[in-house]
Known about the structure:
Elements: H1 2-9, E1 14-15, H2 29-35, E2 38-39, H3 54-74, H4 78-89, H5 94-99, H6 101-112, H7 117-138, H8 145-160, H9 165-176
Helix pairs in contact: 1-6, 2-4, 3-4, 6-7, 7-8
Amino acid sequence: EGPVLKAISGAPIAMEGKSATCAHFSPLGNIAAAMCDLWSNESVQNVRLLSGNAPEAYTELLAYDCRLMNKALERGGALTLREWLTESDRWLSPQAVILSPEATWEIAQAIVAEPDDYRRTVAAGRTAVRLLKDGVQSGRLAISAAERQWLEKAEAALADLPADEQALLAEMTDTYGHLFRPASYGLAG
């Protein structure tokens, strides 16, 4: 959600990715590097590697990335570098599709076009599903049969949501009201 919030507010964001593989494997590490304003890898264990201790090695990797990005900025190639970073990962996974600059911008636009939090949430979900389905239908995004089924289920669930929050709350309270205390969540009841 960080890139979407950045697209809406302009606030800087932090993400893990790119050179953070000692803690998290990710099909969108290059997108994280392109989208975030800073990143770190707080999960580097202090173990000995051939080159030195792991924190030293990962600090060196960070220095490489920073020098590359600074040089791209200095030479007017920052947007080209961003494009290469995002396009190298964009169609490798559903997560990468949704966190690409184009998708985060579309999702952000869908969110700000709505008048309340409920409708913003529904609009974000519907936009994300549409982007993923477009990627699958165009052949750019390959997902498993099980993932296709879940994408269809998500689309159907979003389509079945009532138009407003109060209708959803009434529906959920009728079905699940015995499992929670509405007052604990600031809900009337």
